[in-house]
Design brief:
The protein has 130 residues and is an alpha+beta fold. The chain contains three helices and eight strands, in the order βββββββαααβ. The protein has a two-stranded antiparallel ribbon with strand order 1-2. Strand 4 and strand 5 form a beta hairpin.
Amino acid sequence: MLQGGCERTELLEPRGSGVFSSVLAGVPVGTDYAYRLDQGRSRPDPVSRYRPLGVRGPSRIVDPELFRWSDQGWTGVPTAELVIYELHIGTFTSVGTFDSAISQLPRVAELGVTAIEIMPVAEFPGGRNW
């Protein structure tokens, strides 16, 4: 089910091993979509790049090529200097979004953290997907 001015339904084709897929031409960046299961329930795409309304809301089509990287000179952190922080987006701030987490990154860096491991953000039982 696509939303955003072009609501339509497309069937997914079985590809084997429980995988279903479809390629849709002409769907613009910014379009929200969800999978409608046989029982009529809607679910977000489990591998979507963006869910602006949270883990149970629709997925949104993004174009990663539109992002302009500005860190070409960054060479990484030597393995011996890694201090990894496991960050769960849903519980890291009271808002529970990527944008709210970004605002807290200077505070995490002050702790001496040099790398962040983002915990899974796919749908999972519970209010914050832990």
